[in-house]
Structures are given as structure tokens and as C-alpha cells.
Specification:
single chain; 905 residues; mainly alpha; two-stranded antiparallel ribbon; 48 helices; 2 strands; 1% strand; DUF6493 family protein
Length: 905
């Protein structure tokens, strides 16, 4: 009777009655309740969120915890995801569990503490169970993060973080555990607390008061930083705590090996701190030559200029203190000759110049060995500095001459033939599963789509059965039809529309009604490309449901999306013999994909197509005879600081036999088109790769329609579309202004990985002989002057391109870009006359705004100088004297003079 009463109380949502009833039940009675409680839980899972039955969840949560007898089962019940948002309070759970044995509670709380953070086990429940059990506190991530949040939350109500920590009975254990929890330092309550609520201050103060062991904090910080892998925010917190502890000399000295490791491998800020600690010991003579050499070698291997410069300054101080160490330390200094930054190289060379004479005062044999080592390292210097180094060392140029320069570019990509569709339904299901998980490339998508059509034609029931496990977890399998229809009416979502149609999860009326926006004025700038692809997918989805064709006409022959005309003729002939009606959208896509580069093959296919005697054969013959230019005939640029392209209409795509989606693709691309609907559903650049296969051999048509997004990604730092650039550059066909501008914009992207994608694209275009370097450089300079791209980012991108061995290509781009930026120094005027006019216009006080250098121009000149020195380029650069003749020794002036000297050699 008690069991029935308890279950009724749960159904009514009476948590208080549940607590009272469970308190007087035996273990056998509790176990007897579980079958009904589990059945009720199963029923509630299928109830809508707003169902009145949902009120039973808190009572069910408490009842299940009370009636389970095993700790593992209770932990599973309490942490169940279905009850996470409507669970019983921590006090209720503690009440129903309070009569268990301490060792049982110990087991339970540690099981709960080992649950992942996503289980959202309340800290109040775990800490309450720890008090009841009198057990050791758990130190798992779930418990420690919950404890930290509890300390901060308690300070909102009363007290402070430091006050709450003082009262915590498990302070030492939990603080020790803090250093083992990933990304704990990135928590907002640690980073943004102030005064007495600041965790760094609180821990430091508690260590000073003796409440916390200072050594635990110091060792924890150092070991945490040594472990590495944390985010910048996480490292900043632990480095800040270590700094706040203000280590004594003894504490720093006993950890010299740790500082050495941090110098070599830690993030820049942490390595800088370790470097400063070791510098004190080096200047006091306590570090020793061996460790100083080891430390310097590790730092010189790092890319950060700040760290390398600091190390060179340290070595200079040590050499001034003890010139006798020159024979040992100068070869170490020479390791910096290979640094990518020529300013670092020059600093190292100056140090060698200053102390090379000190080597002669030592042992002759050691001195010769040191000079020989430095001479060998001089080969890594830039050519201008190399000559200077050889003069200082008294060596002949042959002793340190590098290899003759040779331009290195990536191999030109070659198209590959598509593999046939999978033979069996099981193999096809595996392909579908892989595509749904990764979205795949065009080749994988097209052969899988063709496979779905072929197997639906052979045995649709067998295909559906093979695909059932693949689609079991797709959201549209169990969702209400209304939502599914709306989802697929707006977009086919790749293969999903075909799969949903095979499983009859979308109504046929939706597949008939779905259309992309093809009106003369509607749609976004992408809708022409997306519309052709989407129309074909909707058509395929309809036909696999009603009359599956034996194959698709538009399946490409090549990985680029191109279709050999002979293959299309053979497919049309097969359709004629089988009496199959070709799909209109599929046939239109096939025409757009037909390859025309081989005139003889096209002519032969046209003759064979006419002999078919079908409307499709006649249309193919007509299309093969149509003049289709590789690029739009009428082109231009939009005005304003952000450069976009304009195309004229494409008459070949306005033919009446083409469906409306193709007409939309052939519409002119004008300024108004770019300014149309800025926000649309085509933000996912993974879809753009498939657009290249809509019009293979015509990458300009695609580039012109994504250029707006690429430029927006640079100017507004949205990070959209840059991963598409290498694919765009590898696409077959003649490139032009739109492709070039996409790549040029990408060189100014915010994220390094995005700039790297643009560099890859730039080098691929150069390797294919399709990069107009003069115009690319001019575009780059124009965009930098107007502020659309930042010169510092450009410098990093061009340096990356050059470092692959393409110094000649990099210099050719910079040679055309730099005059635009250098001209800004004079506002178009040069010489004394220009300077006088600027002073008059500026009222005789200081420089006019026009003479202020663009930020990052010095970095660009440094990259240009390196490219010239390594490639051996010669000549003049317009407006370079405006920078080189300025007063001072700024990076701009220094690098301008270096570039001028290199060009004049």
C-alpha cells in the first residue's frame, strides 16, 4: 500500500509527501516502487514541454533517488539528462538520502563528482553529502568548478571571496586541486573579481597569513605553466598569481630548470617572465655559461622578436661584463642570424661586430673554431648583412655563399576522373553517412547522389533498409511533418532532401512547390548559383519518390565538375532506348557542365547528339555550337573604398530552353545586386565549393558572387569564406579580376589560418600562370590605402608566401603595391618643393596628416627588402626615396634604406 501511495504522490507532483513516505519505507518496499517509477519516467520523456504531467518531475527525481538501493544506480538517476531542468532541490535529495550509511554516501558523492560538467550535478548536493558522510572531499573537475562558483555566489549575498575561503573546511585540498583543472583560470569569476572578491588577491593574502601553504601555490603555478596547452586567459591567471606571490630569490633559484623549460616551450608572456628571472641569475654569474647557452639556443629558436631581442640584450650585457666569454657566446649569438626578422639579424650581427675582437684574446684554436662557426652561420643572413658579416670576419664570400636562388611554387593541381557510384546499397549507405558527417567535396557528393538515384531505380526498398541506421538520428525522422516541410521548402540542404523523400518524411506537394527566388529583382547575390543546384536536388527528391531514373545526366566526368560531351551523349542515348524522360533541371545542369576545351570532341558529340532525334539531343548540339566566353564580356568595378566587380548579362544563359534558375544565373551582376539582400541563407562557405561545379570552367562567375562576402569578412572581421580560396584558385578555367580580388582581400584577413588559405590560393594561381602580379599588387596597395586591409596583416601574409620559396612572386606583388602606400607620404609631391608646400599647408608646425606613414608600412618594406635580397631583383621603386630620405632611424626609414640599397646592388 505504501508503494502505491508513493507513486500516486509522484504523479501528483507532491515532493513533500514523497519525502515523508520514503522516510518510513524498508529497502524491499523501495525496490518495489522502482518498476512503476521507471515506467512513469519513460512516459514523461515523450510528453511535450508544456504538458501538465511535467510537474511530476521533481517528485519523481526525489522518489527515484530514495528508492534505488545501489550508489551507482542513484548516481545515474540523479544525473539523468531528462530530469536536469526539473529536478528536486539539493536539500530534498539530501533529506531522502540522509539515512544511508556513511561509506555508501562516500561512494555516491564521488560517483556524482566524477560526472561530466554537462550533467550539472548541483554543488550544494555534493557538499551536503560530504558533510553527512564525513568523507574526503572530491577533487574532480565537476566538484572543484562547483565549489569555485559557490564561493563566488556566496559573496554576492554576504561576505567576500576571501572571507568565504577562510571559513571553508576543505580549503587546502580544493585550492591544490585548482591547479589540475583544465581552463579553470579562464572562468569569469577568477578573471574579473576586484578587491576582496579577487581570487588572485585572496589566495596571495591567505598564503601571507599562513592559512595556505605558500609552497603549494608556487609549485601549483609553475607546474600548471609547465604543463602548457591552456588558453591565453588561463595562462594569464596563473602567471598573475605567480607574479603576485613575489617569489624570493631562493624560491626562484631552486626552480632554474623550470624557468629553462618555460623559456623554450611556454607561451610568449610566460616565456618572457621566465626569461627575466633567468636574466638576473645570468648577470649575477649564478646561471653559468652552459645554462646560458642552452637558454639562448631555445629562445633563438622561437619566432617572437621580443623574446629574441631581449636575449640578445642579455648576451650583450654578459659579454660586456666578461669579454673572455666571447669565444663561447658569440657562436650562440650567431644562431640568431637565421631568424626571419632581418632587424633581429642585424642586432645579432652588431653584437658580433662589437665583440669579435675579444675572441683573439683567448686560445687561438678555440678562437678559430668560434670564427668558423660564426662564418658558417652567416650564410643564413640576408644578402646585405651577409656581405657585412664576411667583411667583419675577414672571410671570403665563397665561405658563406648560399645556393643560387630558384623560385619554388606548388605543383599545378590536376583534375581526376570521378569513381563510379557504389555498387551495393551497403557501400552507398557508408558513403552517405560520411557525407552527412563532413559535407565532403564535390566529387564525393555527386557520385553519392548518383548512387542514390541508381539504387532507388533498382530496388528502393533495399536502399531504404540499408539507409535506415544512417538516418536514424536525423532530427527530421521523428519531428512533426509541419516543421519538416517548412525546413525543406526553404532549402534542400544537400543530400538530406533526397533522403527525407526516400523515407517519405516530406510531402510531395512541398517538393513540387519548392522553388528558389528567380524573379528579376528578388533573391540575394548568390541565388543564381544556389538556385541551379537547389532546383536539381528538389527534382531528384521528387523523382526518387515517384519515377526514379536509372542514372543522372549531370554527374560530372571530372573532379572539377566538368562533364565530357561524349558521356552526356551516351547517357541521352540510354534514356532514349529505355524510354526515360530526362529531368529538366538535371539536363540544364548537364549542359552547364559540358566541357568545351576540346573542339574536335565537341564537334563529334554535336553530330552524335543530332542523330539521337530527341529534343535533348538537338538542344545539346545547339549548346555545343553556342559561343560561350570564358569570362563575362562586359566587366567593371564598383566605386567606393570596398572594391567589387560588375558583370554584364550572360546572353547564352538567357535561352528560353533553360529553366528560370539558369536565367537568374545569367542576370547582370551590378552594384545594385551587391547592395541587395546582405544577409541570406548562403553564409556557409562549405556550400560554395559545390557552386564551382554548377558552372565548371568559369570561376569568375562564382568569384564575382562571393567577393562581397570575402570583402566583408576582411573589413568586418567576420571570418567568412576564406577556406574556399584554395578551392577557387584550383578550379579549372580562366580566372580574372573577381578571383584575383578574392585572393587579395584574403591576404588581409584577421586570423592567421585565413591568411594562410589566401597565400595557398595566391601561390596556386602563380603556379598555374594565372596570377596578374602587377594588378594584384595594385589592388593590394589601393585597398591598403583606403583602409580595407591592414598592411601589418598583408606583411605577414606576403612573408609567409615568400618563405615557401616564392620570393620572386612575393616581390612582384609588393613592387606593384608599395608605390600606392609610399605615395601617401608626399600626397603626390616629392623633393624640397613638396616639403615646403606641406609646411605651408600645415602652418609650419610639424608634418601634415598626409605625411603620416600608414601603420605597418615599415613591416611591408622589411618583407620587400628580404624578397629582393634573396631573389636578386634589381631596379627602382617609385616613391621609395620619400621614405628612405626621412630623418630618424624608425623601422620605416631603416627598411626603406635597406630596400633601396638592395635594389641598387
Amino acid at each position: 500500500m505504501t508503494a502505491t501511495t508513493l507513486v500516486n504522490a509522484v504523479r501528483a507532483g507532491n515532493t513533500g509527501d514523497v519525502v515523508t513516505l520514503a522516510d518510513g519505507m524498508t529497502d524491499a518496499e523501495r525496490r518495489a516502487c522502482m518498476p512503476e517509477l521507471k515506467e512513469l519516467r519513460k512516459k514523461l520523456r515523450s510528453e511535450p514541454w508544456g504538458s501538465p504531467l511535467q510537474r511530476a518531475y521533481p517528485a519523481l527525481h526525489a522518489a527515484g533517488a530514495a528508492c534505488q538501493t545501489g550508489a551507482a544506480a542513484v548516481a545515474d538517476w540523479i544525473a539523468g539528462s531528462d530530469m536536469r531542468w526539473r529536478q528536486a532541490s539539493a536539500s530534498v535529495l539530501i533529506d531522502v538520502l540522509g539515512d544511508r550509511e556513511p561509506h555508501w554516501l562516500d561512494d555516491l558523492v564521488h560517483r556524482l563528482a566524477e560526472r561530466p560538467l554537462t550533467a550539472q550535478v548541483p554543488y550544494e548536493l555534493m557538499s551536503g553529502l560530504v558533510r553527512l558522510a564525513g568523507c574526503a572531499v572530491p577533487t574532480s573537475e565537476t566538484y572543484v568548478r562547483g565549489w569555485m562558483e559557490h564561493i563566488g555566489r556566496a559573496s554576492w549575498k554576504a561576505g567576500t571571496v576571501i572571507g568565504n575561503l577562510r571559513k571553508d573546511p576543505h580549503l587546502t585540498e580544493l585550492v591544490t586541486a585548482l591547479f589540475d583543472i583544465a581552463e579553470i583560470g579562464a572562468r569569469s569569476d577568477w578573471r574579473y573579481g576586484e578587491g576582496l572578491d579577487n581570487w588572485t588577491y585572496a589566495l596571495t593574502q591567505l598564503a601571507e597569513e599562513g592559512i595556505l601553504d605558500r609552497k603549494i601555490l608556487v609549485d601549483g603555478c609553475v607546474s600548471r605553466l609547465l604543463r602548457g596547452g591552456g588558453s591565453t586567459a588561463d595562462n594569464k591567471v596563473f602567471l598573475g598569481l605567480l607574479t603576485s606571490l613575489d617569489l624570493t630569490r631562493g624560491e626562484r633559484c631552486e626552480r632554474i630548470a623550470d624557468w629553462m623549460s618555460l623559456c623554450a616551450d611556454a607561451p610568449s608572456a610566460v616565456a618572457g617572465y621566465a626569461q627575466s628571472v633567468l636574466a638576473d641569475f645570468a648577470l649575477d654569474g649564478e646561471l653559468g655559461s652552459r645554462r646560458l647557452i642552452e637558454m639562448s639556443g631555445a629562445v633563438f629558436f622561437r619566432p617572437e622578436r621580443r623574446l629574441v631581442r631581449s636575449q640578445l640584450i642579455l648576451l650583450g650585457k654578459v659579454l660586456r661584463q666578461d669579454p673572455s666569454t666571447a669565444g663561447t657566446l658569440l657562436p650562440v649569438v650567431a644562431q640568431a642570424f637565421g631568424h626571419e626578422d632581418t632587424e633581429v639579424q642585424e642586432r645579432a650581427l652588431k653584437l658580433v661586430e662589437r665583440h669579435i675582437g675579444d675572441i683573439a684574446d683567448g686560445d687561438a684554436a678555440d678562437g678559430d673554431a668560434a670564427r668558423e662557426e660564426i662564418t658558417g652561420a652567416a650564410a643564413d643572413l640576408s644578402p646585405g648583412l651577409r656581405t657585412r658579416a664576411l667583411d667583419v670576419l675577414g672571410a671570403s664570400p665563397a665561405e658563406a655563399s648560399p645556393e643560387v636562388y630558384e623560385e619554388l611554387l606548388p605543383p599545378v593541381p590536376r583534375p581526376t576522373r570521378l569513381l563510379p557510384a557504389p555498387e551495393t546499397a551497403a557501400e552507398l549507405a557508408e558513403e552517405v553517412n560520411a557525407l552527412l558527417a563532413s559535407d565532403g567535396d564535390t566529387s564525393a557528393f555527386e557520385r553519392t547522389l548518383d548512387g542514390l538515384v541508381r539504387h532507388a531505380h533498382r530496388d528502393r526498398a533495399a536502399l531504404v533498409e540499408a539507409l535506415r541506421p544512417v538516418v536514424a538520428r536525423r532530427w527530421w525522422v521523428q519531428t512533426q511533418p509541419t516543421y519538416v516541410d517548412r525546413y525543406f521548402q526553404e532549402s534542400p540542404h544537400g543530400l538530406e532532401i533526397v533522403l527525407a523523400s526516400l523515407f517519405e518524411r516530406v510531402r510531395l506537394s512541398v517538393l513540387h512547390e519548392a522553388r528558389s527566388d528567380t524573379s528579376a529583382s528578388g533573391g540575394c547575390v548568390h541565388s543564381g548559383l544556389a538556385g541551379v543546384r537547389d532546383a536539381r536536388l528538389w527534382e531528384v527528391a521528387r523523382r526518387v519518390r515517384t519515377e526514379p531514373p536509372p542514372f543522372l545526366l549531370a554527374t560530372p566526368t571530372w573532379s572539377t565538375g566538368s562533364l565530357e560531351p561524349g558521356d552526356l551523349v551516351a547517357r541521352l542515348d540510354a534514356c532514349r532506348r529505355l524510354g526515360v524522360r530526362p529531368g529538366r533541371a538535371d539536363f540544364a545542369q548537364a549542359l552547364l557542365r559540358v566541357r568545351r576545351t576540346d573542339a574536335a570532341a565537341s564537334e563529334s558529340a554535336a553530330v552524335a547528339a543530332r542523330e539521337l532525334g530527341t529534343p535533348e539531343g538537338d538542344r545539346l548540339a545547339e549548346w555545343l555550337a553556342t559561343d560561350v566566353p570564358a569570362q563575362p564580356l562586359r566587366r567593371g568595378r564598383t566605386g567606393g573604398p570596398r572594391v567589387l566587380v560588375e558583370f554584364g548579362a550572360l546572353p547564352e544563359l538567357q535561352n528560353a530552353s533553360f529553366p528560370p534558375e539558369v536565367h537568374r544565373l545569367g542576370r547582370a551582376l551590378s552594384a545594385s545586386e551587391h547592395q541587395g539582400r546582405w544577409y541570406c541563407s548562403h553564409w556557409d562557405d562549405s556550400e560554395w565549393r559545390h557552386w564551382l561545379a554548377v558552372v565548371p570552367g568559369r570561376p569568375e562567375l562564382v568569384a564575382g558572387r562571393v567577393l562581397r562576402d570575402i570583402s566583408q569578412g576582411v573589413v568586418e572581421d567576420t571570418g567568412t569564406g576564406f577556406s574556399f580560396l584554395p578551392t577557387l584558385a584550383e578550379a579549372e578555367g580562366e580566372t580574372g579580376e573577381a578571383v584575383r580580388l578574392c585572393v587579395v582581400y584574403g591576404l588581409g584577413a584577421k586570423r592567421p589560418e585565413d591568411r594562410l588559405a589566401a597565400v595557398d590560393a595566391l601561390l596556386v594561381l602563380a603556379a598555374r600562370g594565372q596570377l596578374d602580379v602587377e594588378q594584384a599588387g595594385a589592388d593590394l596597395g589601393q585597398l591598403a590605402v583606403t583602409g580595407c586591409v591592414k598592411p601589418l596583416r598583408i606583411a605577414e601574409a606576403i612573408r609567409t608566401a615568400a618563405s615557401t620559396g616564392a620570393y620572386g612572386t612575393a616581390w612582384a606583388v609588393l613592387r606593384a603595391a608599395l608605390p600606392h602606400l609610399l605615395a601617401e607620404l608626399s600626397d603626390g609631391r616629392s623633393g624640397k618643393e613638396g616639403e615646403t608646400k606641406r609646411q605651408v599647408e600645415g602652418g609650419g608646425k610639424g608634418r601634415s596628416q598626409a605625411t603620416t606613414p600608414v601603420r605597418g608600412l615599415g613591416e611591408l618594406l622589411a618583407v620587400a627588402a628580404e624578397c629582393v635580397e634573396r631573389s636578386g631583383a634589381r631596379g627602382e621603386l617609385p616613391h621609395l626615396d620619400l621614405a628612405a630620405d626621412r630623418k630618424g632611424s624608425s623601422r620605416l626609414v631603416t627598411e626603406a634604406r635597406r630596400l633601396r640599397a638592395a635594389l641598387a646592388v
